[in-house]
Amino acid sequence: IEFDLGRAAEAEKAFQAARSQYAALAEEFPERDAHRVNLGRVCCNLGVLLRGLGRWDEAESAYAQAAGVQ
CA 23, CA 20: separation in Å to the nearest integer? Predict the structure, then answer.
């Protein structure tokens, strides 16, 4: 939503915060698949945002992190 409203910096901050929170939850509660699923989703969405901003290397890194979530 932030990106659609022209607030890419705010969108990126929100995705970064969510990524950190889901990573912590996935580590603390490895038996909860939902935390890993959400971590993968937020990494993918961050990749989409970064790709839209032309930040290809960072987008590729976010996609790689999403693919690596197990």
Answer: 5
